[in-house]
Amino acid sequence: MIAFVRPIKFEEVDAAGIVFFGHYLGFAHEAMEHFFAGLERGYPHLIVKRRVGLPAVKVNMSFRAPARYGDVLRIETSTAHLGNRSATLVYRMLREEGSVLVATVEHTIVTTNLDVMASCPMPDDVRSILAAHLSVEATSS
């Protein structure tokens, strides 16, 4: 598991005073970029120079508690499933104060050659990071 901490910004809150649900996908993507920061030259180099993408093919979200402006989210990212060309990441989003679970996002990605927009073999360094953070639940099933 790799943790990423981010504050809730004013523009992310809706008229009800809570984070608008659509922003949680953006939070998940920020956490994914942080998750892959250990790649040589980072996640941007994977996309821009190596031309390997990790587009979403499936996303499931569930919500447990609200997050508000001024809260700080701790996003814990782990790998729930690791296949040959795909993986499922799980993001547990907790209010840092009190460790209240706010939301869980399950995000299935497929390794893609961005020049031809087709699935491709997963690079070893990407697989290594995913494998290093495979959740206990995933390894026992």
From TrEMBL:
Transmembrane segments: none
Keywords, alphabetical: Hydrolase
InterPro entries: 4-hydroxybenzoyl-CoA_TE (IPR050563), HotDog_dom_sf (IPR029069)
EC number(s) given by UniProt: 3.1.2.-
Keyword field contains Hydrolase: yes
Single Gene Ontology MF annotation: hydrolase activity
UniProt xrefs under Pfam families: 4HBT_2
Lineage: superkingdom: Bacteria
SUPFAM superfamilies with a match to the protein in the record: Thioesterase/thiol ester dehydrase-isomerase (SSF54637)
Family membership noted in the UniProt record: Belongs to the 4-hydroxybenzoyl-CoA thioesterase family.
Protein name listed in UniProt: Thioesterase family protein
Source organism (scientific name): Polyangium sorediatum
